[in-house]
Design the sequence.
């Protein structure tokens, strides 16, 4: 065991050295800081493919972190296994005096962190956690009676009001102030020799061959976001979701920019906080509808129909374009996510949980809270949900948001030829079937 007492900083959904809350507090602490990342086999073993692009993204981000840490005279511990077992090994290898990390709010993460905290407490090692992944955590934006919001609009008003409560001398909200980690980089643990760094193959994965979007976008794109975000045929969205998901960019920095550039984009970041607090307050939404009366909806057991939806062979070109984009790139335009989800749940009357799980497998930017919230919204069973009788017409959606067929032609080149399948279900019939089923279930 090393004789020097050190602090370990545990990276999870915050893969950056700059403006990192937990890392900032670690570096200001009394011990030299050695960063750590654990490839969690509880998560990795459940992935359906060994070519998962998100694992590759994390691996690339860690390689960049390690390279930067080496230039600072430090290094990064990277381990592979079950976290509690990895921590037992680390405590035998290093003289750990304190552990710092940023909070993760998903149900499994809470169980994992409780187990690690218990292990550390047995050895009188403090476990410090900090807010970094969201602007406001679950209990920071509540109704006047102390209960959580379940409707977005009043939540967003209170969110904005709280943001304005504490304004710094430079005009920035206290809650969006960056953490100047770089001032304390000299407090990293010094590492003379480079620590082992596993390859993708070492942890059982292969390159996915999917390009990753950059972590920066032109300011003009954000400035015009409200005008361009609904049109999948143009480059009108930031595609920063994967970077928010794994924390390679700071949510505080992007919210500051959004305040000055585009209020609609800021609203999207508020939705992110909203769904995070819904998951925290109502964890049963993992697997159950937020509005429990929707458990009575008689979803169809139609595996062949579900397969056609997954493969983008429904005969509705805007739906098929979206599914093919997802399968090929790990990304789907936000407007099209709503259309494809509505089609599965309303036109095909297939359980939203199947669609949610498919998106969870495929999306680079998969986030449990946001994915769950979006799918429940589309199915009509979530918070802030549109009434079940509002059903997207995919033909009209394509006319409105892809009028020149740029998006459809890109992903469905056979559209308009005999090779393209006819619609698998007629819209009016599907709408009436859905209305009848939901009405009977809800009474």
Sequence:
């Amino acid at each position: 065991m090393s004789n020097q007492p050190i602090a370990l900083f545990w990276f999870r959904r915050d893969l950056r050295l700059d403006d990192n809350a937990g890392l900032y507090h670690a570096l200001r602490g009394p011990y030299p800081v050695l960063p750590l990342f654990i490839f969690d086999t509880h998560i990795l073993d459940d992935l359906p493919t060994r070519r998962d692009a998100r694992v590759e993204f994390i691996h690339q981000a860690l390689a960049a972190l390690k390279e930067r840490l080496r230039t600072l005279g430090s290094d990064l511990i990277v381990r592979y296994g079950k976290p509690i077992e990895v921590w037992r090994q680390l405590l035998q290898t290093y003289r750990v005096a304190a552990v710092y990390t940023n909070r993760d709010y998903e149900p499994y993460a809470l169980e994992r962190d409780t187990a690690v905290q218990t292990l550390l407490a047995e050895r009188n090692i403090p476990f410090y956690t900090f807010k970094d992944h969201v602007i406001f955590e679950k209990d920071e934006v509540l109704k006047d009676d102390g209960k959580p919001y379940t409707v977005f609009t009043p939540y967003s008003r209170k969110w904005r009001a709280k943001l304005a409560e504490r304004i710094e001398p430079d005009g920035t909200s206290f809650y969006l102030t960056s953490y100047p980690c770089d001032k304390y980089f000299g407090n990293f643990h010094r590492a003379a020799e480079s620590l082992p760094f596993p390859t993708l193959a070492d942890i059982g994965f292969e390159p996915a061959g999917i390009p990753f979007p950059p972590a920066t976008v032109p300011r003009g794109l954000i400035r015009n976001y409200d005008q361009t975000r609904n049109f999948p045929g143009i480059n009108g969205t930031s595609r920063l979701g994967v970077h928010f998901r794994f924390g390679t960019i700071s949510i505080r920095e992007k919210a500051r920019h959004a305040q000055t550039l585009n209020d609609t984009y800021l609203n999207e970041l508020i939705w992110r906080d909203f769904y995070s607090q819904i998951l925290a307050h109502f964890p049963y939404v993992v697997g159950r509808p937020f509005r429990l009366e929707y458990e009575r909806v008689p979803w169809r057991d139609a595996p062949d129909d579900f397969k056609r939806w997954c493969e983008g062979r429904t005969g509705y070109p805007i739906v098929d374009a979206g599914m093919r984009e997802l399968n090929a790139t790990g990304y789907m335009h936000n407007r099209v996510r709503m259309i494809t989800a509505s089609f599965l749940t309303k036109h095909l009357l297939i359980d939203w949980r199947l669609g949610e799980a498919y998106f969870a497998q495929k999306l680079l930017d998969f986030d449990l809270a946001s994915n769950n919230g979006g799918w429940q919204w589309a199915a009509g069973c979530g918070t802030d949900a549109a009434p079940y009788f509002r059903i997207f017409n995919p033909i009209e959606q394509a006319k409105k948001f892809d009028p020149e067929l740029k998006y459809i032609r890109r992903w469905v080149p056979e559209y308009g030829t005999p090779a393209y399948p006819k619609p698998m279900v007629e819209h009016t019939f599907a709408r009436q079937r859905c209305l009848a089923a939901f009405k009977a279930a809800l009474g």
Observations:
- The first strand starts at residue 5 and ends at 11.
- Strands lie at 5-11, 33-40, 77-81, 95-102, 127-130.
